[in-house]
Amino acid sequence: MTVLTTNLNRSLKIRPRPFKVLATETISHKALDADIHSAIPTEKVDGTCCYVTTYKGQPYLWARLDRKPNKLAEKRFKNFLHSKQNSKEFFWNVEEDFKPVPECWIPAKEIEQLNGNPMPDENGHIPGWVPVEKNNKQYCWHSSVVNYEFEIALVLRHHSDDPGLLEISAVPLSDLLEQTLELIGTNINGNPYGLGSKKHPLHLLIPHGAFQIRNLPTLKHNDLLSWFEGCREGKIEGIVWHCSDGCLIKVHRHHLGLCWPIPDTYMNSKPVIINMNLNNYVYAFDAKCLFNHFSKIDNQKFGRLKDIILNV
Question: What pLDDT shows up at residue 23?
Answer without folding.
Answer: 79
